[in-house]
Write a structure and sequence with these properties.
Layout: H1 10-13, H2 17-25, E1 28-32, E2 37-39, E3 47-51, E4 55-60, E5 68-73, E6 93-98, E7 100-106, H3 107-116, H4 118-144, H5 147-162, E8 166-167, H6 171-178, H7 182-194, E9 198-201, E10 204-207, H8 210-216, H9 220-231
Antiparallel strand pairs: 1-7, 2-6, 3-7, 4-5, 4-6, 8-10, 9-10
Length: 251
């Protein structure tokens, strides 16, 4: 079955057909290569990306400490979000953790469309607001929840963006997501495997009991979904590839 890629990104899919078609016509479909650093904190970025599959980690560079992934962005979103505020520089790195594709738009083109389209302004402003809330939620998560709770959350978030129970990521990547040492991830993953929640080997995880992982995950997982639902009430989170766009009404 042929997939309409113009509907594969959740934000683009919410636009009315004419607005969506105009944005797509001024973008290019590019490959997001595994481990590529698509955005570099502090450097000028001339593009924004709307993923249609795969995902990137949004990484905060931390002086004198390991970098920390503070968010994931897949087909539900876009990066770099600073462009919504007419900023060329990003405060974050964006590293591809699961290869895929994205619609890439120049910053100048995006700014032109934002000036001409209230629909696009509404969608991207709502998304930027949701991202700020999710970043705040990540701070709460790191400071108040156990490694096992956070690993369960990270596994579910990754499953959602890949639309698959098979995850090809190393413990090193999960340690970046959780902000802990790789040994701590290994201990938590071993505990999950003993309980039958997952099966894992180097660079591969299979989710065996997703209901158990939902029960184990901290409340931040559901809070992130609810934040997205509040921003886009008529859009089910991670319902990629719907047949028709969803109208976004003014608040």
């Amino acid at each position: 079955m042929q997939i309409n890629l113009s509907l594969a990104n959740q934000l683009i899919a919410t636009l009315p057909p004419q607005e969506r078609g105009l944005l797509i016509s001024h973008s290019e479909l590019v490959e997001l290569e595994l481990h590529a650093m698509v955005c570099v904190a502090g450097e000028i970025s001339r593009h924004v990306w709307f993923p249609v599959d795969g995902f990137v980690s949004i990484i905060l560079p931390v002086p004198s400490a390991p970098d920390m992934a503070v968010a994931q962005v897949g087909p539900e979103g876009m990066f770099h979000t600073s462009a919504v505020f007419d900023l060329e520089h990003s405060a974050f790195h964006a590293r591809v953790q699961a290869a895929g594709r994205a619609f890439r738009v120049t910053l100048a083109t995006l700014q032109q469309h934002l000036q001409q389209s209230r629909w696009l302004r509404e969608v991207l402003n709502r998304y930027a607001d949701a991202r700020l809330s999710q970043l705040a939620q990540q701070t709460v998560c790191i400071n108040h929840h156990s490694v096992e709770q956070r690993l369960a959350r990270a596994l579910l978030m990754t499953r959602d963006r890949l639309c698959s129970s098979e995850i090809f990521l190393t413990h090193e990547v999960f340690s970046l997501m959780l902000g802990v040492r790789r040994e701590s991830v290994t201990q938590a993953a071993s505990a999950f495997q003993r309980r039958g929640f997952i099966s894992y080997s180097r660079g591969y995880v299979m989710l065996l009991d997703e209901a158990a992982l939902n029960s184990m995950a901290c409340g931040c997982y559901k809070a992130d979904l609810q934040t997205y639902e509040r921003a886009f009430p008529a859009v089910a989170p991670f319902s990629f590839g719907e047949d028709s766009p969803v109208e976004v009404t003014s608040r």
